[in-house]
Amino acid sequence: MLRLTTLLRETREHDEGFSIVEVLVAMTVFAMIAAGVATGIVSSLYLAHGSRSREVAIGLAQDAIDAARTDANLFAVTDQTTPTKRDGVVYTVKQVARWVPSAGSANACGAGGGGPLAYKRVSMTVTWTAGTGGSEQSVSMNSLVAPTTSVTAANLGTVIVSVSTASGAGNQGVSVSIAPNASNPSGATAITSTIANTDANGCTYALNVKPGRYDVKLSKSSSIDDGTSAGSLGSQTTTPSTTVTVTANQTAAANFNYDTVMALSPQWSDPNASTTAFTSPTTVPVTLRHKAADYGPYVVGTTAKVFPFTDGYQVIAGTPSTCLSNDPEAWTTANGTAVAPRNNPQTIGATNAVKAPVQIITVKLAGTADNALTATTTTPVSNSGDPGCATTTTYTFTGLPTGGTATIGLPYGTYTLRSGTVTKIVNGLVTIAFASGTPSVTSSTGVSTSSNKVMLDPRRTP
After folding, report:
1. Per residue in 51-100, pLDDT tens?
2. What stretch of H or E contains 24?
3. How far lies 334's CA from each of 1, 326, 338, in Å?
4. What angle do CA 404, 405, 407 make, to 5 degrees?
5. What pairing do the DSSP bridges indicate for beta strands 262-269 and 304-306?
6. What is the number of other CB atoms lying within 10 angstroms of the CB of residue 433?
7. Long-range contacts of 48-55, Cβ-Cβ distance < 8 Å, separation of 24 or more
């Protein structure tokens, strides 16, 4: 028995197992090593996937370049963007093609120089997203592609037509006609070959054209130009035209800005009393201004179809081209500020309402039977700041309260007023029997009277 006890005691004293602390330390070290190994594996897989994606992108770019090089019709190689999916990854192939003339710089249609079209510079950019939530990656590749034969035969020329939208992008699908100039063809002859509609870059071409002067005209449904075409300079038109001169072994360019019309609904509105109702004259003109060019006048109540400039139009009541008084910015001012004639388009139904600033005035008719009124522009009072009008304009108001007080709206300027009774209206022409007296006007901000003249002043003291 004593021997057995001794053996058990010795066994307990020589126990060589692991403590709990040692186990925890070992597990921690193992976890750190495993995490590092896992991170390395993930990074290796990510790099391998990224490398694979880049190889695919390079292959797609190379395939696109090869397709451009082998295209029998170099005019068909245009800007385009094509998405494609490989191994679960979506790649976007963007092709940009620019003609380069023998003289000048590259552009979409090749109209940057005067020499013949020499070759095309084709640029491919392939983009994709690296993994879920990853950053966008891209590769690019460029090449010069020359036509297999000369674009135009010797001693003949090329007409390049370039059509851009308001944003600067090419206008595709525009119909183009080219014919000898009617008044002075200078050797030009009819073009018998078919002229294609403009491509994705807004370009089309007439090849092997005999030297001479040619008229180039555009047409496309619901489209209008910006008024800069030589054949319709200063007037927006749905069928713009210009004249080009073709010389031997050279290119002639016809450039247009042409886009889908923007429909505007012109209105008159007093910016200082926008909710006050007033009577409008029988003729209610509105002029639209873009930079230094005026278009119109258009009539309130009709739809004005205009070029969709991205920075919009200024809106002016009346016709400032013949009456500067209508334009608030034309008034001289020492202490005041003219009402800004800009009102950004506000969507109303399917059209945009553009409001031209006018002045509302209250007028007491002169005769007890009067029901009509005329306001005629007149010479401004000296040193008033009113720039005046080059031509005289008369605004006619009918249907006014008989012998009563009327609230009317007029463009800015200086007027003489007469009231009377309507005796006849034929084809819109109003005949009025005028009273002997002079209507009286209620003075208010922007409205002043002097020597039977009424001045409607856009300037306001800040």
Report:
1. 788 888 888 888 888 888 888 777 888 888 989 988 888 889 998 888 88
2. helix 20-70
3. 127, 19, 11
4. 145
5. antiparallel
6. 13
7. 49/130, 49/131, 50/130, 50/137, 52/87, 53/89, 53/128, 53/130, 53/137, 54/137, 54/139
Question: What is the C-alpha to C-alpha distance for residues 311 and 126, in angstroms, rounded to an integer?
Answer: 33
pTM exceeds cut of 0.85: no
* Mean pLDDT confidence for 385-413: 95
Q: How far is CA 94 from CA 37, 50, 69, 173, 440, in A?
A: 40, 20, 16, 21, 70
Tokens standing for 301? Answer: 């109540």
Neighbouring C-beta atoms of residue 169, cutoff 10 Å: 14
Residues near 172 by beta carbon (within 8 Å), at least 6 away in sequence: 197, 198, 199, 200, 201, 202
Amino acid making up residue 327: D
Phi, psi (deg, nearest 5) at residue 98: -130, 125
Region at 452 (left for phi over 0; alpha for psi -120 to 50; beta for the rest): left
Mean pLDDT of the chain: 85
Q: Which of 213, 306, 295, 291 is nearest to 254 (CA)?
A: 213
State the Cα–Cα distance between residues 125 and 94, nearest whole angstrom.
5
- For residues 271 and 357, give the distance between their C-alpha atoms in angstroms, rounded to a whole number: 6
Handedness of CA 262, 268, 269, 271 (dihedral sign): positive
Cα distance from N-terminal residue to C-terminal residue, the chain: 118
pLDDT digits (tens, 9 = 90+) for 163-204: 999 999 999 999 999 999 999 999 999 999 999 999 988 999
H or E element at residue 440 = strand 440-441
- Reading the block at residue 418, the tokens are 């007469």
d(CA 94, CA 295): 39
Average pLDDT over residues 18-24: 70
DSSP code per residue over 343-394: ---EEETTEEEEEEE-EEEEEE-SSTT--EEEEEE-PPPTTS----BSS--E
What is the C-alpha to C-alpha distance for residues 72 and 63, in angstroms, rounded to an integer? 16
Taking CA 14 as the corner, what is the angle to CA 13 and CA 20, rounded to the nearest 5 degrees?
90
Radius of gyration of the chain (CA): 38
Which tokens belong to 213?
A: 């002067």
Q: Region 311-333: what's the mean pLDDT?
A: 91
Contacts within 8 Å (CB) and 24+ apart, 272-278 = 272/339, 272/445, 272/446, 272/460, 273/360, 276/360, 276/407, 277/407, 278/360, 278/407, 278/408, 278/409
